[in-house]
Amino acid sequence: MFHHVKELQFNARVSKPDVRFAKLLLEQFGGPNGELKAAMQYFVQGFGCRKAFPDKYDMLMDIATEEFSHLEIVGATIQMLLTGVNGELKNAADESDLNKMLDGSAAKENYIHDAMINPHFFIVSGGTPTLTDSVGNPWSASYIMGMGDLTADLRLNIGAETSAKMVYENLMKFTDDVYVKESLRFLMTREVAHFQMFQAALDTMQPNFPPGILESDPRFSNKYFKMSKGEDFKGPWNHGATPLMGEEWQTIQDPVQHVRDTNGLLEEKSVGTDRTEESVQKSNKDLSAKRKAKVDKATAPTNGVMSWSVYEDSKKTESQKSQLNQEKSIL
Ligand code: MN
Ligand code: MN
Q1: CA of 171 to the centre of ligand 1 (A)
Q2: pTM to 2 decimal places
């Protein structure tokens, strides 16, 4: 269940209204790398691992709930940056009052300019945050990534935290408000913390590479196809041992000739690896059986009933319950 506390996780402050920065900050409210995306991604991923990986479920739900708390901080900051806009719009009946508050025609020009570049605040939302990105695209569930496989999901989350961190880093360049900067720095820092939580969780799952269950084909896993002409570079991505599987990189110097020589790679040989087709098939079977057994065992119904949660009272046996009832009736 969700239980709302009417205080922010971080005490967001703003020194003065700034409609233009409010618009930029919408990127982290309803944008593709924003807080709602993160919250929903981890929340949705949590369902699949609730039973089989309760420790990872615990972490996903803690982080998802923190992301909702960040969404609240971003929304509150946008609202404070829009101070005055909402009240101003309520001045619909009396045009002369609007002019008075605008303090002359230069201020009015400013106000009109702000409305032109921020139609969502001035025309649509009435001075409140909108669930869009900074140019007005509505938030979309297509931002959410999850594959129902924990090692894959954790990697997707590391990517999500990376881009969220970068958007905050970029946003910080567009405000001089020390209080807004302070909140942005907190939000950016928490994404760095989450990155490490997901990485640490991934490391506890072994084997975790490649993502999923099936191993890669040893004929192609360590081949580097030189697909361009010109200056060539060597690095650990094409030279020496492959970083995660420890195979030896093999460079295909002339891919066109190589493809022709191997009947379109059908006759490709595995080189620079200890893995064989037999070892791969065995490994696939072993890991499949292991993961399936873990999930089946964790999700099997007890007494024919599936129950998502266990409450303290339902742990008591029937005789314990009737004894408690007797005690209550004596009292
Ligand atoms: Mn966040
Ligand atoms: Mn995060």
Answers
A1: 14
A2: 0.87
